TrEMBL record:
Highest taxon listed in the record's lineage: Eukaryota
Keywords: Membrane, Transmembrane, Transmembrane helix
TM region(s), chain numbering: 91-114, 120-144, 165-185, 197-219, 231-252
Protein's UniProt name: Uncharacterized protein
Topology in the lipid bilayer: Multi-pass membrane protein
Pfam families assigned: UNC-50 (PF05216)
Homology family: Belongs to the unc-50 family.
Location in or out of the cell: Membrane
Amino acid sequence: MANGSKTRTLSKESLASSFILPTPVTYRHNCMSAAVKRYRYLRRFLKFDQMDFEFAFWQMMYLFISPQKVYRNFQYRKQMKSQFARDDPAFFVLLIVWLFIASVGFTLVLGLSVMAFVRFLLYILFVDCITVGLCVATFLWFISNRYMLKHSIGQDVEWGYAFDVHLNAFFPPLLILHVIQLFFYDVFISRDWFISRFFGNSLWLISFAYYTYITFLGYSSLQILERTQILLAPVIPICLMFLLSLAFSWNINESIMNFYMYRVL
């Protein structure tokens, strides 16, 4: 009887072992390297039929409505594909389209030539979006891994994810400052009135606050990080700058328009 009971116990154990679930992709050690991920991402730039533009447009829309839902999708990607960063460049391609539309708007408002339009487009793409994004993403990637990472977790923040957070945070200010603002610039914002300065500078305040908030959401959604509230600190100097601009009658939009005119002419 003892031998029979032992045999049945061993049979149950062997049967249970055959149904052990595979290791979640988050904890596998044979994940793709960063170089392989970058290669696969860049290779898809040439394959528009493989890009999910509908989903990228959904993300852009929810960055205004509910940014938390966008970052919830990044969590799903980590579980399924072992990476937080996007593996589909559709979002970046659509962002370039919006940059093109914004450049057309600036060309019409400022009365730029065709060559000035090209220079303006290249400037906001490679300087305002990419170069600034590389600097901000690298800085926050270093800060988060150096000072915010939970040491008990054997993971770190991907640089590609840090750059994705920048692109997410860059999109709402792009629409506010480079698209919506243009409808009011000539008829209202450019006037030498207090209400004009207040409205125009408020758009900059909202844009910078939006960028800061979406950046904060991006890092706070990572369970491997702590003390992410410090990323909201820039809101204080942003508000202070807004008040100073009103006190000294500084029209931020006029200064930025003159700066762009100087850069492209």
